[in-house]
Amino acid sequence: MPRSLPLRHAAVLLVTISVSTLDALDQATPVAWAGADDPAKLEVHTEPAGGVRAVATLMIPAPPRIVQEILIDYAKWPTLFNTPMRLAQLEQHGERAVTDLYIKHAFLPGERRLLCESRELPDGGLVTTLIAGDFKRYHRTWKLSPEGEGVRTRAEFELLVEVDTWAPDWLVAVELRRELETHFRILTDKAVERVKRGT
């Protein structure tokens, strides 16, 4: 058997996995933390111009005030993710904050710097935009609104991200889906815990 044949098989397998992964990403699927009657969905797909877009709607059993307080507690941002990251610097000026994060993704060597500015939205929520770092694009929006007489929060999330890396966008999308599912679960758990504590 020619020695190049196993390499051909590996290449075919990689292409097959890539196509299957992209097909799965194009479908809106219920996320792992969504209940049977919860309409929450997470959509993640690659962008034609490059990068990955993620859109989600969460129904969090806590008032918007509590969810907002968690989102703007910038010093504790690393605790909202399972992905290893460290906050190197934080500057706050009223409703504006600049965060200097270093993130270690499982599929990339070393750390990726993400220097961003975040601003609170007047009606509840947060907009985070890229200043500098190892990203070509990063724009994240949280919009919060009350549900069920204010005891629950409808949280609309959108993220457009493009990492400055050799990794293909479809691989970034696969990893991003995993990271966001965990992030949303941690955020929801922390909000519920605060409700139980009465804070």
Q: Your description of this structure?
A:
This protein has helices at 5-25, 64-71, 169-197; strands spanning 29-30, 41-46, 52-60, 85-93, 96-103, 112-120, 125-133, 135-147, 152-163. With 199 residues, it is of the alpha+beta class. The protein has one domain (5-197): Alpha-D-Glucose-1,6-Bisphosphate, Chain A, domain 4 (2-Layer Sandwich), CATH 3.30.530. The chain has a 9-stranded antiparallel beta sheet, covered by helices on one side. Helix 1 (5-25) crosses helix 3 (169-197) and helix 2 (64-71) crosses helix 3. The longest helix is centred in the last third of the chain and has 29 residues, at 169-197. The model is unreliable at 1-37 (pLDDT under 50).
User: What is the makeup of the main sheet?
Assistant: 9 strands, antiparallel
Per the CATH scheme, the topology name is Alpha-D-Glucose-1,6-Bisphosphate, Chain A, domain 4
Average of the residue pLDDT scores: 84
Q: List low-pLDDT spans.
A: 1-37
What is the CATH class designation?
Alpha Beta
Question: Would you identify the CATH architecture?
Answer: 2-Layer Sandwich
Tell me the strand percentage band: 35-45%
